[in-house]
Amino acid sequence: MFSRSLLQFCLVLLFSSEISCLDCNRIHVLQTRMNSESLERLEKMGGHFPFQCLTESKAFKPRDILKLRMSQQENAKGAIQQILQELFHIFNNNLTQAVWNEASIKEFQNGLHQQIEKLETCLSAEMEKEMTYLGNGNLLLTSLKLKRYFQTIDDFLKEKQYSLCAWEIIRAEISRCFLILDILTDRLKNEGTIFAFF
Amino acid sequence: MQSLVGPVYNGIAFAVLFECFLIVATFSFNLEACVINPSQKLTMKSHNFEHILLLEPGSNTTMPTYYHVMYISFRFEWKIAKECSNTTRPFCNLTKEYEDYTHTYIAMVQSSTEREELNSSILEFTPYTSTCLGPPAVNLTACPTCINVTIKLPASYLKEKSLIDVYQKLDYTITPASHTSVSHSLPPELVTTCNFSYVVGSLHSNTNYCVSVAVAASLNRHSAPSALKCIITRSSTQPGITYFKVWWGRGSGIFLLVLYKGGFICLRSKPWPKVLVCLFIFNLPVHEPDPEKVCSVQVMYKEMEKTVWGYSYDDSESDSENSDEYTRHGILGRVPGSHAKSNTFMHQTTDCTSAESSSQAIEFLSSDAENSEEHQSVIRENESTSGEFFHPSSEVNSSSTSGLSNSACFNINLNTVMLGDPDKTWDDSATLISHQKDAVDLQDSSASDALVSKIFTDTVDVKKPDCHNISHEWQKPSVSDESDASDSEYVRR
């Protein structure tokens, strides 16, 4: 009896692994969908913006991430990976004062993690090549800009001691990150064939 | 083993269902409705970046209410909506105020009457993710099995920016409303302009199809679909052409009938001269003859009953007067139609330079082209002994009886087939049968075993269509029948 159900379970797993096989040439489609889902989860995590936090929001003045401009030669892969990893890192902080549902926080983090993993699977080989490319000064500049942006967020959270209002303000700001992610993901499809497996 | 079959099937079925679910989930489309009403008192109606805030819908106060609208974007100061300060109108147009569409705005409405201050309410709104896109302008043109859908994006209310400029890529869902409504979602890569067309194909002709188009973005699934537009897929051919086709078909049929009756097609009423019969046998090569191998083959006729000469569509017209002519055709067998008799057979011996004709005869027996090599090897084997009677069935058996099952149009009682030297007497029937029994072992296909046993005792009833083809080939060597590739070989000269 047990062996029977075990056999069925094994068969299901076997077929599941076939199903979830990743097509790296369509990675931008998958990433677009996952972006959309992550944004939905972020919005569902909390309710409306608390009215009382409006005054505090003026204290937070980061650079506008949507004004991040990348030249045509730069590819979007590095920027997307950096943004996703920084977002994941932010939510690893102290979330006790935020009044959000624990389960929805975990869901959001899992979604981000999956996005990062799938992107890495398809793009890791290409990334190594590009990092060693000497003429890629633009890539470095974008990376620095992003780093500064996320540092501002980190500093704000620390300064406000991870209060409720700080978290709500950051949550509203992070939703704008997904807008730039969407634009960058769209550029992935223009960046040629991706060979993930050799 | 049996105990595993059940769970294996269950597992496979479950896995297939799971896979189907995943596939469906992957391609599922969520289009949200366009009305945003998060708070009780305020409703935002936003279409293509035109934002209209409805203030206290359905309120029933008799006294005039003054509304004061303020809004704030994060990190900025409170601003007053210029057109909506102390207004009695129950709505406020915030299109110009919400200029920076990527930000989140919070609108606060303070309503007051002359006597008292009513409550204020707030509404949070992000234009980029919440404005309702569409409906697009749709035009349809019909073709026989498809519909050409021309889609024009609505204009946005932003300054100097279209929807494509804002979102860069948009999904279009074309939903034909019919009994089989399948949504076509256009990949965003195809859509880069505000005005484009798309062809929905694989439709039935002369059917009414109604189509609705919805546009959405990856981060904004709020869309207003266009109204249903209907069109009938018409055939582009003129009515006259249809009539022409009908009459052409009928005319061809009548013409063929006339030819047949006149005996031009099937030549039933015209007997072949004896000379030509022999010529037919000799002049239907299949492969190049081997000049070294020579054998002598004699054509011998035995008594034949009335037969139907392979005209399976014409069983009712077998004429007894033609039976003699049929025997002269020299075919190694005949089509067993409904009138087939069982006690006829024919020996055929041909000269082997004429190795071609004997091999052709063997080919003729089994129209299975795959076994042609085997046939030829068998022929060569048999040709080495001179004066051997050519007996069709034994050759075929030794190579492959599966060929027989395909086609062979002969009906030979093997008990009467003889093997031996033409000069000798005909008393080696036993040899033939034992030889045939040996031939069984040489066969590869096990499927023909039953057939082999049948051959020993009964006459073989083979399929009519192949025989039909073969007989036609025989009668009209110049005509090649495309349906059977091996048959076409017979008529090649």
TrEMBL record, chain A:
Membership in a protein family: Belongs to the alpha/beta interferon family.
UniProt-listed Gene3D superfamilies: 1.20.1250.10
Keyword Disulfide bond belongs to the record: yes
Signal sequence region: 1-21
One GO location term (cellular component): extracellular space
GO molecular function, one term: cytokine activity
Originating organism: Chelydra serpentina
Keyword terms: Antiviral defense, Cytokine, Disulfide bond, Secreted, Signal
Lineage: Eukaryota, Metazoa, Chordata, Craniata, Vertebrata
GO biological process, one term: immune response
Tagged with keyword Signal: yes
Protein function: Has antiviral activities.
Protein name (database record): Interferon beta
From TrEMBL, chain B:
Record-annotated Interferon/interleukin receptor domain positions: 131-233
Location of the Fibronectin type-III domain: 17-117
Domain of life, per lineage: Eukaryota
Sequence ranges of Low complexity compositional bias: 393-402
Residue spans crossing the bilayer: 12-31
Keyword Transmembrane helix: yes
Biased composition (Acidic residues): 314-324
GO MF assignments: interleukin-22 receptor activity
Keywords annotated in UniProt: Membrane, Transmembrane, Transmembrane helix
Compositional bias ranges of the Basic and acidic residues kind: 372-383
InterPro entries assigned: FN3_dom (IPR003961), FN3_sf (IPR036116), Ig-like_fold (IPR013783), Interferon/interleukin_rcp_dom (IPR015373), Type-II_Cytokine-TF_Rcpt (IPR050650)
Region spans: Disordered: 313-335, 367-402, 472-493
One cellular-component annotation, GO: plasma membrane
PANTHER family cross-referenced by the UniProt entry: INTERFERON ALPHA_BETA RECEPTOR 2 (PTHR20859:SF84), INTERFERON/INTERLEUKIN RECEPTOR (PTHR20859)
Full protein name: Interferon alpha/beta receptor 2
